[in-house]
C-alpha cells in the first residue's frame, strides 16, 4: 500500500499544498512549529478520519477559514483509489473514489497507517486507556468486524451508563430494561474480547521476533490480556458470555451506586512482559523503548498478514528518541518493505547512511519545497 499524492486545503497552517511521494522513504525536514507534524497528521487523518492530536475537528481548519480538506491518491494491489476528507460547520464528509461514505466504518481501512511518535512510549509506561486506544485504532484498521462491533459496543455502553447514572441519582428505573441493555452489552463484549485475545496473541508473536533481534537475543517479550474474565474462560463465545453474566451479577449493586458500567472491554488492558517481568513497572527506560519499538514494528507484519497489504509508516520525530542501534534496527526493518514518512529537524549520520535515496521535503512556516528543487529549476532555466 502506498500514498502517491496528497493535497491539502486550509488544513492547520497550510493554505494549499500538493505533494507527490515516492514508494520508499519520504522525509519532512524543518525546525519546530513549522508544520512537519501537521503533514503527518493529515496523512493519519486521511486514513482514520480523525486526528491523533485533537478530538476537536475545528482545530484542523485553518484560522479564519470555514472548511479544511485533505485528498489523497492511494495505490494498493487492486489499483489506484482517490480518498478525500473535509471538515466544515456542517460536519465531516468522507469520500472513496469520489463517492460519499455515509458511515465512517466503510471509509476506514482504505489507507492503513501506523504512527510512531515519542508519546508512544506511553504504550508501555502509560495508563490502560492508552493501550485500549492503541488496540481499537490498530485492529479497527485491520478488521472491519472489530470496527463495527466497537462502534455498536460504545453506543450500548453509552445508553447503559446514562441509565445507571440516572439510577444512582435516585430516579425510578426499570430493572427489566437494564437487563436488556446488559444482555446487549454482553453479546457485543464477548465477541470483542475474543477478537482482542486473537489480536494480542498475534501481535505478541510478531513483536517478540522483533524484540529478540533488537535485544540481541537476550530478552523475550510477551503480551498478556488483562480482563475481568478469567483467561481460561476466553475460549468460545458462549463460555465468555456466561463468565460475563456472572461478573455483571456480582457488580450489579456497585454499578447502580456508582452510576457506571464496571465490566467489559472498555476496562481491559494488556501487560507487556520482558523475561517474565512487567516492563511497565519494573523495566529500565531502555527496555521500555525497545518494547514500544517492537510493538510498532510487529504491527507492520501483522497488518500485512491480516490485510494482504503493508501499511504506510509515519515516524514523527522519533529517530531523535532512539539510540543508534535502535535507529539502525528500525530503518533496516522498513527498508524496501514499507512506504515511510519521517519528520525530523535534521537526519542523523545513522539515518543518512541507512536510508537509500530518500525524497526530502523542506518545511518552513507552512510552505513545502523539495530538497534540490531550486537547483533543478535553475539548471533547467
TrEMBL record:
Which InterPro entries does the UniProt record give?
DNA-binding_RecF (IPR001238), DNA-binding_RecF_CS (IPR018078), P-loop_NTPase (IPR027417), RecF/RecN/SMC_N (IPR003395), RecF_2 (IPR042174)
Q: Which domain of life is it from?
A: Bacteria
**Taking every annotated instance into account, which residue ranges of this chain make up the domain RecF/RecN/SMC N-terminal?**
3-345
Residues reported in the UniProt entry to bind ATP: 30-37
Q: What is its main location?
A: cytoplasm
UniProt-listed Pfam families: SMC_N
**Compartments (UniProt record):** Cytoplasm
UniProt keyword list: ATP-binding, Cytoplasm, DNA damage, DNA repair, DNA replication, DNA-binding, Nucleotide-binding, SOS response
Question: What SUPFAM superfamilies has UniProt attached to this entry?
Answer: P-loop containing nucleoside triphosphate hydrolases (SSF52540)
**Protein task:** The RecF protein is involved in DNA metabolism; it is required for DNA replication and normal SOS inducibility. RecF binds preferentially to single-stranded, linear DNA. It also seems to bind ATP.
The similarity comment for this entry is: Belongs to the RecF family.
Q: What NCBIfam families does the annotation carry?
A: recf
What is this protein called in UniProt?
DNA replication and repair protein RecF
Species, as recorded: Fructobacillus papyrifericola
